[in-house]
Design goal:
The protein has 36 helices and two strands. It is mainly α and 622 residues long. It has a two-stranded antiparallel sheet. Strand 1 and strand 2 form a beta hairpin. The relative contact order is 0.04.
Length: 622
Amino acid sequence: MTLTPKRRPGRKLAEDPARMAYGSPEANELIARIHQIVNNSGGALAEAAQRRGMQRQTLDRLLHKAQPDWHVVELVVTYCIEETGGQDRHGWLKEVNGLWEKSRTTAPGTGAATALPAPDPDPGPLPGPGPLVPLLGLVLEGRYELVAEHLADAGPVDASGVGEVLKEIGNRSPGAAAAVIQAAVAQGRRDMADTWMQALEDCAEDVAAAVRRHLPPDVPDVVDPPEPAVPAVSIADLDPTAFEGKRLALLVRRGDVAQAATDILVRATPDPENDSARTDILSGMSLGHDGVHIPNAADGVLALRQGDAEDLHTLAAVLGSLVLRGHAELAAVVLRRLGEDDTALATDILQAVPRPQALAVLRASTTVGFMTIGFGATEALLARAPAPVAADFLLAAARDGQGAKEPADLLMELPHRTEVLHCMAVGDHQQTARVLNVVAVDWSLTGHNTPERRITASFLHVAGADSTVAARVLLQFLRFNSRSAADLLYLMETTSAQGDATQVTARALTGTLDLAPSVAATLIARMARREDFPIRLLEQVSVDNPTHGTLLATHMMAQDLAYFRSQIPSMIRQQATTLAAELLQQLAGQEPEAPWTLIRQALTAGATEAALANADAYIATR
């Protein structure tokens, strides 16, 4: 079956290399072919950029250079392959790689003037804020040393103008302004960097504070000592991991999330010319999607923590990008390792990752390589996941598995169990009832802090917050197992210190009668035949809605007339007088010769002792 791409609205990209002026003729041919592939795939550059976590303008600028980098070209072509089914049936990557290699042999700029020129490395003198746009262009290119040199040419007299420029840069990216100051220090201009920070603070204290958070300890934020202090650690002395972490963090802060993720994956992919990765069994087991060595890739991601330890969104952005590329297992490994060192940070990062990607991470945490290892490794991550994400995961596990034992066990141990259970009930009441039913198979009605009582207390809170949702779950529970449902109702009423537990539980029962009157009444009547069933719940239902009381009495008589007739005295002793009166009225219609009418009249008149004595005496003779 051939996939026909769907054309998106919007203007087609130009495909004629003769009408392009991006660089050399070879570069124009490369860009033209990329445009053709985008058009043929039915895709759009805006969507390619969004899917890889960057702005359209950024991708446009990076692609339409005189000599675009290969990772940018690969990003666009890979997106087009995904749009046409995920397999490179046309050999686009190989073809474009050949054109790219060919374009490298020709120096950029030998053709006509570029359509999107690179920023001028020498924007000219700086009169105050001056030529801001060219400087911002240099910042986008990451050429911080040229920005620092240009600002240095202004001299100390124009410090206020430099402060204005840094303010404009810092408003857009505090990390970029910090990188410019760091570049000045690296050029031996520490005193000047201190003056710039002071000028920035004079212009905008809030921007200066944001920039200062991105400066390493070896760059002072004010001019304090008369002689520059020797930094404890210079950039040259940074170990490779810390240096790479800083570089990747700067990439992410500049919006190049896709490039940061690509660099991590490339460094962690074994050299195809080296056979050791294929022959070493242990190394082979550590290979994940696309042959990436997971431990090495995890080290690369964790290096970001050294590069940007204060901003959890840096790590979250990279993890989300990795998941979108199919590396959810790698993201799960990173979060597990983070949790071993800093539980709070791992929790914050997992909650900052978009919901679909976070769910993919949880699912991937049940495997190592291609082997399923169950849910043991998932428990720690699940406890840190937002309630909707945890609920989606548990519901999916319940649907996919033959039983719901593992999801039930995980649910009982979650610290935010009540919120997760509520989200599960809202999302899929049938699977939620199935999970609760698994818990109820062997639960005990005795003890205090048992798993049964904890999960029941959570369900009671759900019922208190949304009785309709709880009723849907309870109706399914009644269908699964009336005996376990009776245990659930008993525990709901007795497991909590809430004074309104009986009313809350009764409202959930009433909700089942509203949803399916005949079916629910039959199931409740069948459940009520248990001697330990809390009949006061049915009394509360009857008091709240007399119509429901009549319906329950009718189905109780139909279910087991002899049993419920024998329970009339017990109901009166338990003060279930409304339900008992309804049963007596229906018994009188079926057995007119019996004294049921007289007993009911005494009961409704408040002569409870007389009604009880007559009921005991008559039932004893039956």
